[in-house]
UniProtKB/TrEMBL annotation:
CDD domains: ALDH_F5_SSADH_GabD. The keyword Oxidoreductase applies. It comes from the Bacteria. InterPro entries: Ald_DH/histidinol_DH (IPR016161), Ald_DH_C (IPR016163), Ald_DH_N (IPR016162), Aldehyde_DH_dom (IPR015590), Aldehyde_DH_Superfamily (IPR050740). Belongs to the aldehyde dehydrogenase family. One of its GO terms (molecular function) is succinate-semialdehyde dehydrogenase (NAD+) activity. It holds the Pfam family Aldedh. This is NAD-dependent succinate-semialdehyde dehydrogenase. Keywords: Oxidoreductase.
């Protein structure tokens, strides 16, 4: 019997060779949404063989046409937005409005990758000797293995599909087994638009087994991963031992500096929206709130007021501002971080507990007086918790802000132009929001510094991680 969420190999939706599967759970109700198929090695071999053929077929399609196909896929997603957004909400939990925004962002990535595909070109120049000609060809890097997470299951996969397919590569993607439906819908939109069926594979299974198998295959030339730092290091080491290039978009723990010259209520309102979006399960989420002492109490009081008023509920229900966490694992992780902070002396200003006993709902939480050794100040929380850290001394605050292995994003709130420039220049992060917490639009190359990643995704260079060059020297 074909499972609800099958594998997609060579254009066929089908179960795994040995019939294995796992339950997909709706995080709002804890009910099963069906089963997701697990790929056996025989399925992966088939997916790899298809990708090898798909690469030859797709790379031969003129970039102008590839661009048109990607743009058509974007239009397909938008045409089906209500159905796909519902799938996203059911499997991931986010409110429908956020799910719709994710579908649109995914379409924007495909469109952008399609635009950039039309600009693929090489270079040609006179060589150093008379009669010598030097050329640089820009070529697809080959078959890509992509591993994508559950927090933005469609948009984070769409980034990788846009770059890889725009460059002319074939791609095998292993999405998160917990959110399989939206990536299958993305793949279907691409196939319907005209991407050759062999050029796209979607496989699920035991993550460590699938990644080891695909990375080791001589058919795979490039690895791209979005997820946690420990898993990123593992995959990068496997790829490195075979000298295969990687792109790594990993975790963050964003310092958010609120200087004493801003309106604390206005800043708290903006930051509550940013903090509780997607239940705080965003790598760019603001996570450590350094607030200058003179406004710290007003900021904290308003943030707590917002947290208490935040409407948490099933994402399908009108009015829900925040859905559940993804799974029981996340619920336990968040509970443990908050319990640890409280045991060390932190004070709960709002939330601090699970909501209800069905669904993985956790209350929007504000913590005050958080001691420096609390785990939440060192480990990525990935949940709706805001630890507030009043500061007096800028140097000391900056030392703490830069003091972790994370280098993804940081935020500065100040109207003092010289001060915020100074702070921005000292912050060791790949994204800095000034009076802003941006999302990632396709026209921007996003990448982490330090252990938060390697390489970028998006921007006018969106195809580059999926390209290689060849130098051709000709004497006439
Ligand atoms: P996790 O590290 O267990 O899994 C994260 C993702 O990686 C999942 O999609 C999982 O299927 C995949 N994965 C795990 N092991 C893998 C392997 N060996 N090979 C290939 N894929 C593998 O963590 P989790 O509990 O699911 O998520 C929480 C953590 O994940 C967070 O703390 C955060 O750091 C990270 N995360 C980051 C992002 C991001 O956008 N950078 C997105 C989601 C999760």
């Amino acid at each position: 019997m074909t499972p609800t969420f099958p594998l997609l190999i060579d254009g066929r939706l089908r179960p795994g060779a040995d019939g294995a599967s796992e339950d997909v759970i709706n995080p709002a109700t804890e009910e099963s949404l069906g089963h997701v198929a697990h790929a056996a090695p025989a399925d992966l071999d088939e997916a790899l063989e298809a990708a090898r053929r798909g690469l030859e077929e797709w790379r031969a399609v003129p970039p102008w046409t590839r661009g048109a196909i990607l743009k058509q896929a974007a239009a397909n997603l938008c045409a089906d937005i209500e159905q796909i957004a519902r799938t996203l909400t059911l499997e991931q939990g986010k409110p429908l409005a956020e799910a719709r925004a994710e579908v649109i962002r995914s379409a924007e990535f495909l469109e952008w990758g399609g635009e950039q595909a039309r600009r693929v070109c090489g270079r040609s120049m006179m060589g150093r000797d008379p009669g010598q000609r030097a050329e640089v060809e820009t070529l697809p890097i080959g078959v890509v293995a992509a591993f994508t997470p559950w927090n933005f299951p469609m948009a984070l996969a769409a980034k990788k599909f846009a770059g890889a397919l725009g460059a002319g590569c074939a791609i095998i993607c292993k999405p998160s087994e917990e959110t399989p439906g939206s990536v299958l819908a993305l793949a279907q939109a691409l196939l319907d638009a005209g991407v050759p069926k062999a050029a796209i594979g979607i496989v699920f299974g035991i993550p460590s087994e699938i990644s080891r198998y695909l990375i080791a295959s001589p058919i795979v030339s490039k690895i791209t991963f979005t997820g946690s730092i420990p898993v990123g290091k593992l995959l990068a080491a496997q790829a490195g031992s075979l000298m295969k290039p990687v792109t790594m978009e990993l975790g963050g723990h964003a310092p958010t500096i609120i200087c004493g010259d801003v309106d604390p209520e206005q800043a708290a309102d903006l930051l509550a929206r940013a903090k509780f979006a997607n239940g705080g399960q965003i790598c760019l989420s603001p996570t450590r709130f350094f607030v200058e002492r003179n406004i710290a109490e007003r900021f904290t009081a308003r943030f707590a007021e917002q947290a208490l008023a935040w409407r948490v509920g099933n994402g399908l229900e009108t009015g829900s501002q925040m859905g559940p966490l993804l799974n029981n694992r996340r619920l336990q992780a968040i509970t443990s971080l908050v319990d640890d902070a409280l045991a060390r002396g932190a004070v709960v200003r709002a939330g601090g507990k699970r909501l209800g006993d069905r669904g993985y709902f956790y209350a929007p939480t504000v913590l005050d007086t958080v001691p420096a050794d609390a785990r939440i100040l060192h480990e990525e929380p990935f949940g709706p918790i805001a630890p507030i850290l009043p500061f007096d001394d800028e140097e000391d605050m900056l030392r703490q802000a830069n003091g972790l292995e994370f280098g993804l994003s940081a935020y500065v709130f100040s109207h003092d132009v010289r001060r915020r420039e100074r702070l921005k220049d000292r912050l060791q992060f790949g994204t800095v929001g000034i009076n802003d917490v941006p999302t990632h639009p396709p026209e921007i190359p996003l990448g982490g510094w330090k252990e938060s990643g390697y390489g970028t995704e998006g921007g006018i260079e969106i195809l580059e991680p999926y390209q290689k060059t060849r130098f051709v020297s000709t004497r006439h």
